[in-house]
């Protein structure tokens, strides 16, 4: 493994009630987070391919962990998202190198499919920084019931020379979706949008 | 008798490989389970609240079992524990104190009679309040290597009429523990202290 991992964390959220209504089955979201050393902290490096490879490794590891935490088959996942927070000695572009070029392919391999763009966010921050991982349906980005987000943070990360990388997977949309739009049973699944 | 109405459950599992020192052959695992329940006493002063401790016992037991599962399923692997509560704004600190008995009972039951007092903390707070749940060794409070804490919290809880209940378990000492004191190997196990 190229990534030097200090810490892994998983979070599983299960919502069983909302506004005094029972949610059955409960909606469930999981996020897996890795805290890794930033090989380029403190210096400008032009070629970021090492971080791209790290992104590929983490795409597989974190997606597997998130799916395991939900206790579902990868193919049963409904929505996904990814995010990264770069410690203060790093550069926003380091997060981009991890998230964008190579992380998505293994995510989709673990989930069986994933025609839609993986929604993402990134920032630079200190210890305890909060990531709101955006979520969207994995096969059709326009499914309105699945627009959501999951908040994650770790009080001791990222340190200045670290990067915190997160992948979130769900088996459901929002608890009581009722703002219309494309529904999941209407997905054509051809272009990743509808 | 009051119903225990659960809105949400969140599991957080951390796996710590190192913290700047040698990478441990056995990573430290820490798990926290958070349950967000309705506070049956929110909004008014109720003199007699003790009965709710019994109502909470099944939840304590269920949460303790889920934590053991999240840490691999073997109760013998659990070496540290702690508990905590955050009471929403329409409740009082005393409502958080209701968790002492059922939270502790649940963990002792599942761990097969742990001897040490369960370290605990509580506060009144709004959604997003963070709580540092203290952790000590399950059989001897003075084991210095196992003094730890895990920060927990949820962006959307507790609402005013809710209580966030937390249980935490760990599988070992701090990852680079080296400040002396009583060792786990030296536990007499008679009084829960040493």
Describe the structure in your own words.
The complex is a heterodimer of chains A (194) and B (194). Chain A is of the alpha+beta class. Chain A has one domain (5-186): 2-Layer Sandwich (60s Ribosomal Protein L30, Chain: A). Chain A contains 3 helices and 7 strands; from the N terminus they run ββαβααββββ. Chain A has helices spanning 49-70, 92-99, 104-111, and strands spanning 5-18, 21-37, 79-86, 120-124, 131-137, 148-152, 162-170. In chain A, strands 1, 2, 3, 4, 5, 6 and 7 form a 7-stranded mixed beta sheet that branches. In chain A, a hairpin with a 2-residue loop joins β1 (5-18) and β2. The longest helix of chain A is centred in the N-terminal third of the chain and has 22 residues, at 49-70. The radius of gyration of chain A is 17 Å and the shape is globular. The termini of chain A are far apart. The mean pLDDT of chain A is 96. With 194 residues, chain B is an alpha+beta fold. Chain B has a single domain, classed as 60s Ribosomal Protein L30, Chain: A. Chain B is built from 3 helices and 7 strands. Chain B has helices at residues 51-70, 93-97, 100-111, and strands spanning 6-16, 28-38, 80-87, 119-124, 131-137, 148-152, 162-170. In chain B, strands 1, 2, 3, 4, 5, 6 and 7 form a 7-stranded mixed beta sheet that branches. In chain B, α1 (51-70) crosses α3 (100-111). Chain B is globular and about 50 Å long. Chain B starts with 5 loop residues before the first strand and ends in a 24-residue tail after the last strand. The model of chain B has no long low-confidence stretch (mean pLDDT 96). The chains are: A alpha+beta (194), B alpha+beta (194). At the A-B interface, β1 of A face β1 of B. β1 (5-18) of chain A pairs antiparallel with β1 (6-16) of chain B, so a sheet runs across the interface.
């Amino acid at each position: 493994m190229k990534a030097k991992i200090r810490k892994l964390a998983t979070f599983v959220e299960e919502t069983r009630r909302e506004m005094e209504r029972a949610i059955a089955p409960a909606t469930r979201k999981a996020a897996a987070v890795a805290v890794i050393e930033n090989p380029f902290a403190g210096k400008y490096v032009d070629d970021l391919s090492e971080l791209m490879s790290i992104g590929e490794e983490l795409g597989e590891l974190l997606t597997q962990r998130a799916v395991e935490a939900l206790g579902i088959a990868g193919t049963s996942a409904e929505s996904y998202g990814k995010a990264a927070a770069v410690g203060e000695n790093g550069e926003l572009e380091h997060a981009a190198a991890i998230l964008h070029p190579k992380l998505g392919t293994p995510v989709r391999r673990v989930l069986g499919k994933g025609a839609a763009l993986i929604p993402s966010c990134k920032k630079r921050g200190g210890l305890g920084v909060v990531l709101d991982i955006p979520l969207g349906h994995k096969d059709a980005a326009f499914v309105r019931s699945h627009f959501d987000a999951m908040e994650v943070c770790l009080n001791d990360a990222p340190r200045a020379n670290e990067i915190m990388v997160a992948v979130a997977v769900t088996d459901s949309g929002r608890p009581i979706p009722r703002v219309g739009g494309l529904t999941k049973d209407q997905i054509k699944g051809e272009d990743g949008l509808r | 008798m009051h119903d225990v109405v659960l809105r949400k459950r969140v599991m957080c599992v951390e796996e710590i490989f190192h913290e700047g020192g040698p990478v441990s052959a056995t990573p430290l695992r820490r798990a926290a389970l958070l349950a967000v329940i309705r506070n049956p006493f929110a909004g008014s002063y109720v003199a007699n609240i003790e009965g709710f401790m019994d109502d909470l016992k099944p939840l304590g037991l269920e949460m303790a079992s889920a934590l053991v599962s999240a840490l691999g399923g073997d109760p013998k692997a659990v070496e540290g524990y702690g508990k905590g509560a955050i009471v929403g704004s329409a409740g009082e600190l005393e409502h958080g104190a209701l968790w002492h008995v059922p939270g502790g009972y649940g963990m002792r039951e599942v761990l097969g009679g742990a001897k040490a007092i369960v370290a605990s903390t509580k506060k009144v707070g709004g959604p997003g309040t963070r709580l540092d749940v203290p952790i000590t060794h399950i059989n001897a409070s003075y084991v210095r290597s196992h003094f730890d804490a895990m920060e927990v919290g949820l962006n959307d809880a507790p609402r005013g009429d809710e209580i966030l209940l937390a249980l935490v378990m760990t599988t070992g000492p701090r990852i680079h523990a080296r400040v002396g004191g009583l060792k786990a190997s030296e536990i007499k196990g008679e009084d829960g202290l040493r």
